[in-house]
Amino acid sequence: MNKNTLTGFVLIAIVLIGFSWWSQKEAAKQQEAYLAEQARIDSIAKANPKQEETVNDSVQAQAKLQADSTRTFFAAMADEEGKAIVLKNGKVELTIDTKGGVVRKARVMGYKDYKGNANVTLFDKKDQSLSFTLPAKKENISTAELNFSPTEVSDRSATLTAEGADGARIVMKYSLGNGYLLHCSLSTEGMDGLFEPGRQLMSVEWKDSCRQQEKGYTFENRYTSLTYKDQGGGTDHLSEGKSDSETPEEALDWIAFKSQFFATVLIPKSQFEKGAYLQSTMLTKESHYLKSYVAQMRMPFSPSEKTEFEMYFGPNDFQILKSIDKESRFGRDLDLEDLVYLGWWLVRWINRWFTLYVFDGLTALGLGMGIVLILITLLLKGLTFPMVKKSYMSSAKMRVLKPKIEEATKQYDKPEDQMQKQQVQMQLYSQYGVSPLGGCLPMLIQMPIWIAMFFFVPNAIQLRGESFLWMQDLSTYDPIFEWSKPIWGIGDHLSLTCILFCVSNLLYSYMTMRQQRDQMIGQQAEQMKMMQWMMYLMPLMFFFIFNDYSSGLNFYYFVSLFFSAAIMWTLRKTTNDEKLLAKLEANYKENKNNPKKQSGLAARLEAMQKQQAEMQRMRQQMKKK
Question: Rounded to the nearest 5 degrees, what angle is found at the Cα of 283, between the Cα atoms of 279 and 286?
Answer without folding.
Answer: 165
